[in-house]
Amino acid sequence: MREYYITKNDSGQRLNKFLEKAVPLLSGGMMHKYLRLKRIKVNNKRTEAAYKLAEGDSVQLYLNDEYFDAPKEEEAFRRIKTPRVRVVYEDEHILLADKAPGMVVHADEHGDTDTLIAHIQAYLFQSGAWNPDDAASFAPALCNRIDRNTGGIVIAAKTAEALRILNDKIKDREMEKRYLCIVHGRPKPPEGLIENYLRRDEKRKQVTLHRTRVPGAKTARTRYRTLTSHDRLSLVECELLTGRTHQIRAHMASIGCPLLGDGKYGTNELNRPYGETGQALYAYSLTFRFAQDAGALQYLNGKTFKVKDIPFVKKYFPNFKP
């Protein structure tokens, strides 16, 4: 139990406003729950969130220690008040989220815990769909990931069974993932298959392409088709036949059409006139194509989910409809 004594500086404010500052990891929904359960009291009596604190009051909090400790990465969801989750589709087993460009999916090397998975867990926790106290061995998890500056569909499993099935299906390539991107120039031919070997350089955080297999390289295959072009830009749909790091960015650059805004595989000279600082790439379409039975997720077989509101498409190709 934690107890706070209200001083002159803290008096005159509502209890809920005081708790937002005193216990920042306590969400509004949980605060109201604990008020009903009498785990939050004022002067050892049941109270309401709107109670106006007075000097000399004492606030008793019968809460778990994690609300007072700095959250670990796996508990970062507890400090999120308003989850930023754009839901494309959700049912009892899975959630498809439209990740915004700029958000990381998991904590990166800088220790950033303001991640997509933390926001999804906060969303499910606050909605009552997931209670970590009821399933100590499982937490909602992501089944795939995309780069920080790439937007689009990310799959989250809400149950351990769904996580197991989806991991197997991704491994067996029983999902069809399509991306929209804007590239400089006009691909020649307008559609085709790019196939070579990709090796990742961990120090440079970049990949290199090779015509023949070299140590550490993996097969990379991308099918692309040009949807429309104008001026010096083209809108291209890419289908990932393999899922390698930076695959689309490196592949399109290899045919002389780097992505708009991509400074790593493109050039500042090309990007500067447009003022774009992040690659124009979006994982906009996901289709489940199960070759083998998917158990509890078999109902998803053959279904396609798409993101239709893609900012860079509306900006440069406003007449195109995904």
UniProtKB/TrEMBL annotation:
<dbReference type="Pfam" id="PF00849">
    <property type="entry name" value="PseudoU_synth_2"/>
</dbReference>
<dbReference type="InterPro" id="IPR006145">
    <property type="entry name" value="PsdUridine_synth_RsuA/RluA"/>
</dbReference>
<dbReference type="InterPro" id="IPR036986">
    <property type="entry name" value="S4_RNA-bd_sf"/>
</dbReference>
<dbReference type="InterPro" id="IPR050188">
    <property type="entry name" value="RluA_PseudoU_synthase"/>
</dbReference>
<keyword id="KW-0694">RNA-binding</keyword>
<feature type="domain" description="Pseudouridine synthase RsuA/RluA-like">
    <location>
        <begin position="93"/>
        <end position="254"/>
    </location>
</feature>
<protein>
    <recommendedName>
        <fullName>Pseudouridine synthase</fullName>
        <ecNumber>5.4.99.-</ecNumber>
    </recommendedName>
</protein>
<comment type="similarity">
    <text>Belongs to the pseudouridine synthase RluA family.</text>
</comment>
<dbReference type="InterPro" id="IPR006225">
    <property type="entry name" value="PsdUridine_synth_RluC/D"/>
</dbReference>
<keyword id="KW-0413">Isomerase</keyword>
<dbReference type="InterPro" id="IPR020103">
    <property type="entry name" value="PsdUridine_synth_cat_dom_sf"/>
</dbReference>
<comment type="function">
    <text>Responsible for synthesis of pseudouridine from uracil.</text>
</comment>
